[in-house]
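for the record, two folds in this file. i put them one after another cuz i was lazy. first one right below, seq on top, structure tokens after. the second one comes after a little note so u can tell where it starts
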Amino acid sequence: MKVSLDLLRSFLAVHRSGSITAAAELLGLAQPTVTAQLRALEEAVGRPLFDRLPRGVRPTPAGDELARRVAEPLDRLDTVLADDRDEAYPRTVFLGGPAEFLAVRALPALAGLVADGLELRVTAGLPDALLDDLAVGRLDLAVTSVRPRRRGLTAEPLYDEEFVLVGAPVWADRLAGPVTPAALRDVPLLAYAEEAPILRRWWRTVFDARLTRTPSLVVADLRAVLAAVVAGAGVSVLPRYLCRDELAAGTVRALLTPPVPPLNTLFLAARPVAAGRREVQAVRRALLAAAPD
């Protein structure tokens, strides 16, 4: 039985994305073309490869088995065909992640590669949207606070965020005694989301208490939250990397230092089809090398 590589590439794109529409977008083909290719491949192998759902498709056992057998050879072949040894970074790298981490940690770590000729496109977003974009090929790498459990994605630990309860000196001086939920009762709380997940986690893990208050200020950017803290609007819980310079300068202070500070692991997620490319490997190495700092 002879099957063309185009049929297998389309099959693998559908298998990884879970959608004929998304696969067609990724491949730069019309949706009817991908549908016809899948039909031709199913006729060639003599069994259905996907169950059609109201939204998307789900691979049959035969589809999963075929994907397991062809994914690695196709990924290697595509890497070889795309590799231009005359260029240090043959293709553009598409990177996604949390806006604050990208701005403060990732982009400075990648500045040398960009100066050396790497073309980089960066997208900020939340974990679910980033993983969706990664799965369908709109991203090559994604920094995410959620370890992906999706078919066709890999992940490795990148960075452990340490969280700090911070306030401007004016609030630190007012909270001269033990910092407890009762002591913070009348202090404005600043958060990046209405649900205040970072604050709630701090209260739960450090104070062993449930946060029942709503924030006084909500702004969907932790850098803006930090600016409000520096200006004296109230207190917040922020990643240490974000407020490291302000802590060193004394414009904000750590209000409490627990024996075991809350941590949050960020993961570097990738698609195997992209992970083997020379320029993607360079970005991965640079991010991992910078993480301990």
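(here's the note) second protein begins now
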Amino acid sequence: MKHLVDRVLNHVTMYRLMLYYTGALLVAAFGLGLFGLVPADPTALVFSTVVIVATCWATNRAFAWLLRVPVNAESVHITALILALIMPPVTASDHMGLAGLVLASVAAIASKFLLAVDRKHIFNPVALGAVVSGLALGQPAIWWLGGNSYLLPIVLIGGLMVTRKVQRLDMIGVYVLANLAAVAATTPPEMAGMALQQSLYYSPLFFAGFAMLTEPLTAAHGRVSRLVYGAIVGVLSSPNIQIGGFYLTPEIAFLVGNLYAWAASPKGRFKLTLLRVEEIAAGCYDYVFHSEKALPFRPGQYLDWTLHLEQPDSRGNRRPFTIASAPTENEVRLGVKFYPQPSAFKRKMIEMMPGDVMYGSQIAGTFTLPRDPNQKLAFIAGGIGITPFRSIVQDLVDRGDEREIVLLYGNNRPDEIAYGDLFERARRELGMRAVYAVAEGGVYGPGYHNGFIDEDLILREVPDLRERTFYISGPRGMVVRFEKALRRLGVRRSRIKVDFFPGFA
């Protein structure tokens, strides 16, 4: 079942999945409202949703036109739908309530453009919009979705799929535990059980975590930072937390957490101008860019790449891709493999010419080398999953940093092997050993293995595997398979680091 879920999730972007999630909740709420099973009046809910979506869309178009920047249309719709799920549904005759919806929508979208540093917005737009509406007009978020037993299964199932997609179960877990701990600590012991039950069943705890904590541009990155971020938001979201006589709300908790995340995360948005395209293997290409400013990244980290698409498809106009270049290089490389029936994003990339622009943001990722230079390492890569290793190895070669490394690199055919010249140079200069596993064809000589990477190959080529830290990069199914294989072979979980591509682009 888990593998089936992963296969489905691999074919949809995080933004599209969140759009499906929030859309499904709204549709379910409308249907249940017809029978009086949710607190929202269905007519008011439809009217409010239309107002919010239209206001968010118009505000986004206006700022995009004024500032001449590409935007993620799906992100706008997600913001609108979450607002519709937390703001009070109103009718056309409720002028103050209607003004609150419009103000929340305008403030949410405007914050992406105005409350930003180096084109990266700081605050969760939904949280900020709700706070502005509450403070300015006395029309706060009421989080009407929370506490409805009929909607809770959709909240949980859809939210867990989102969490699985973005691989942030640890952050969500810390957030929930921190919230429950704060509730228990601030409640009289005789009432603690009831208070915890209220938090689990009758509060916006889960929806806020799944829909807003996972928002990538305002969340913290790096494992420790995101756990701290989850704990901050979880504690401050507790209904008993107050400053003086002022009780905090979930949306205020998010704004405080966003400030921490911004302080703890890499800053900035990067304008990347295409210099050239290089074919690195059959169907694989390096897009080589000039950046207007240096990217402060470590080898093995990734970047969110955004393209302006006139007609984006279901996979949107933003992708997380590993930075294939090294910090020692003056150019920024993006390694891409093109499959049949590519997405609109990939089709646009195929059409790109020197001088065209992409935008990068949100440098993140922990797929980086240990600080200890004496730690023995083993890399396992499948297909275009070789890109983080290209970044790491190029950096080691440029700095003359000798490490004990074995690379196992799997492909279907020998012409699909990318960056072979670099790995040969690393062998000569640093003593790195590379083994190429090729599934199709005959014998290819020393350094090649006929067939797939399997446990026998790992044991043969890495006999001291229990002394090494393993890095695995490739499609999700491959990563999971090798994680399990290494555990069977006796490699400790703490010595396995994984990277994967969250969808086919």
